[in-house]
Input
Amino acid sequence: MFDINFVERSIIAAVLIGLTAPLIGSFLVVRRSSLIADSLAHVTLTGVTAGVLAGNLQAFWDINPLYTGFLFAFAGSLIIERVRHTYGGFQELAAPILMAAAVGLSAVFMSISADGVTEWYGYLFGSVVSVQMEDLWFIGLMTIAALGLLAAFGRELMFLSFDEEMAAAAGIPVKVFNVLLAVLLAIVISASMQVVGVLLAGALITLPAAAAMQWASGFKRMLLIAVIIGEASVAAGVTGSILFGIASGGGTVVTAAFILFATLLLRTWINWKRNRRLKYERHQGA
Amino acid sequence: MIFLEFDFLRYALIIGLMIGVVAPVAGVFVVVRKTPMIADAMSHTALTGIAFHLWLASYLVWLSEWNPLYTGILFTFIVSFLIEYLRRRFQAFQELSIPVVMASAIGLGVVFISLADGFNNDLFNYLFGSILTVNAADAVVIGIISAVSLLLFLLFYKELLFLAFDEEQAAVNGIPVQRVNLLFAGITAVIVASSISILGVLLVSALITLPAAAALRVASTFKSMFLYAVVFGETAVLAGFFASYYYDLSSGGTIAVVSFLIWTIIVLAEKVAGQRRQRPWKEAKWTDKANQ
Amino acid sequence: MEDSTKTLLEVNHLSFRYESELVLDDINMNINQGDFVGLVGPNGSGKSTLVRVLLGLHKHYQGEVRWFGTPVRQFHQWPKIGYVSQKANRFNAGFPVTVYEVVAMGLYGKKGLLRFLNRKDKQRIHEALEQVDMLGYKKKNMGRLSGGQQQRVFIARALVSDPEVLILDEPTVGVDAASAQAFYERLSHWNREKGITLILVTHDVGAMTKYVTKVACLNQQLHFHGTTREFEESDLAGAYGHDVHIIHHEHDHHAGGA
Output
C-alpha cells in the first residue's frame, strides 16, 4: 500500500524546487519584474498542452510535454522583453497580454486534445505524488543547470537586477544577461510544473523572495532566507499532498503566502513601534 | 441559424454579447489606471469562492442548489475592497498586493477543491469557461449586473477618468478619491465574476485587458477608446461562440486567442504604417495679449 | 483690489516632518486676495512639501493652515484653488485623452458627483483654452503635444473652474527664457485684470522678481516674507538669486502680509 518510492520521489522533487524557485525569484523581485514569472508559467502551460496534443496527433515522436513546456517558456521570455518595449507608458501591460494569449491558446489546445481533464489538473495545480522517475530526471537536470548558471553568473545578474543602467556602464553585456535570466526563469518554471503547477509556479517564485526582502539587509542574506521560506512551503505542500490528498501547489502556496502576510504584519508593527519610540525620544529631547 | 433553436445556446449568446460590452468597458479603466493584473487577481478570487462553495456544499446539501458562481461574486466583491484597503494600509503592499492576493486566492482555492474532491469536469468549465452550462436565470442575473454596471460607469465617468489620469490632482480638485476607487473596485469585481460562466476564471482577464490594450493603441480620445474596446470585445465573443459551437473548441480560449490576434494585427499594422509621430505640432508662442 | 485686503490663506506655526526629518520648521505667513506671491528657495528647501500641505495632501502637520478662514482639514471648496503640479507634464504620454478632455477634468470636482457638463461648462472650457492660446489644439491628443504645450493645457485645467487662487509649482522648468518671460507677463496680466491671487513656486529668483508683488523665501524655515521691494533691498535677494543652499542669516521678517 505504502510505496516508499513515490514518497521519496516527491520529496526530492519538492526539495529541488524549493531551492531554485526562491533563488531566481529573488532576482526578479529585486528587479521589480515579479509578474513575469506568472505569465511565463502560463506560457509553459501552452507548451505542455501543445506537447500533449502533438503526442495525441502522433505528429512527433512521443516526447515528455515538460520539454515542450520549457521550449515555450524560453520563447515566451524573449517575447515578453520585446512587448515591454512596444508600450511606452504602459509597460505593465506586457505580462497580462502574454498571459491571456497563453492561457487562451492552452484552452484551445486542451479542447482539441483527446486527453481527459485529470491529466490537465496535474499540470495546473501540481501533483507532486505523481512525479515519475523520468520527470525526476528532468527536474534534477534543470536544477543542476540553474544552480550552475547562478554560481557562474550570479554576481553579474545581481548587478543587472539592481541597476541595469549602471551594469551597462560597468561593461556588463546587459542583453546577454537579460536573456540568461530569462533562460533561468524558463528552466525553473518548467521544472516546478509538477510540484506546484502552472497556476502556482509564479507564487512559489515570488512570495518567498518578497518575504525575504523584508528581513534581509544584503542580497546574499535575502537568498538564504528566501530558500528557507521556499523549502518550508514545499515541505508543507508535500505533507498536505501525501497525508491529506490536497493538491501540492495549494498547500505550498498557502504556506508561502501565510509567511509573507505574517512578515508584513510583523514589519508594520515593528515600524510602528519604532516610530512611536522616536516620537517619544524627540518629545523628551525637546 | 439552426443553433439558436437550443435554449442554452441562445442564453449563452445573449450572455456573451452582454459581457462583450461590460468587460471591455471595465477594461478601459483597468488599463488606463495601470493595474491590468487586478482583473486576474479578482477572477482567481472568484475561483476561491467557487471552490469554497463546492466544499461547503459537500456538507450542507441545500447549498448545492445554488450556483457556486454567486459565492464567487461575493468573494470577489469582498476581496476587491480588501485589496484597496491593503494598498492604503501597508506601504510594502503597494506593488505586492495584487500578486500576493492572486497567489493566496488560488492557493486557497486549490486547497478547497482538493477537500471537496472537486477535480472534475465542472471545475474545468469554471476554469476555462463553457457555453453549455448557462441557463435563463444566469442570463437575467448577468443582464441586471451589466445594466447596473454600465449605468454606474456612466454616472461616475468623469470621476473615473480624472482619477485614472492624475489621482493627486483629482484629490486636489475635491474628487472623493477613496470612495470612487472603492466603487470602481466593486463594479469590476462583479463584472469579472459574472463573466466567468462563459470565459472561465483563467480567461476573464483576457476579455478585460486585451480589447482595451488594443484600443489604447488606436484611440486618440478617451471616449473613442470605449468604442474600439467594445467592438474588439464583441468580435472576439462572437468568434469564440461560433468556434465553440461548430468546432467544439473552448469558448473562453477562442475569445482570448481572437482578442490577442486583434491586438497583434494592430501592433503590426502600426509597425507597417510607421511609428506614431511624436510631437508633430509646432511649438505655439504666447501671444502678446497681456499688453493689449 | 486696493480696498479689499481679505486674507485668503493663513499659516501659523506650521511644522512638518517627513519620517523623522524636519522639512518645515515653524512657518508663518499670510496671503491676501490679489497678491502675486513668489515662493522661492533652493532645491530641497521644502517648497513642494509646503504646497502639498496647503493643498491638504499631507495631513500630518503641526500648526495651523486656513483657507478662507477654514482649517485645511475641514476645507471642502477646493475648486476655489487651482493647482498646476510640478509633475503635471510627467503624465503618461500614452493615455488616449484630448486637450479638451484634460481641461474638462478641471470642472469635475466643482460639478460634484452625478452631474454632467452642460453647455455653459463647455463654453468655459473654450475660454480657458483661449486664455492659454491653446484653443486650436483642443481636439489634439495630449501625448503628442510638446512639454510647453502640455504645461499650458494643465494651466487651462487649473483656470477652468474660475479659481480665486492659482498655485503653480515650478511652471517654467524646461521652458526657454523668452517663453518664461511671456508666461510671467501673462500671469501678471491675470493677476491685475482678473484679480486672481497667484502663488508661484520657483527656485529661480532672477526672472520673477519683476512681476511678483510679494516674496517668501523658504529653506526649512521662512527666512523672508514681505513685498518685492523689501526683498530686493535685503541681502537675501543676492543670496537666493545665486541659489545658495543654506542660509543662516536670521532675518526675522515674519511680518505677515501687511
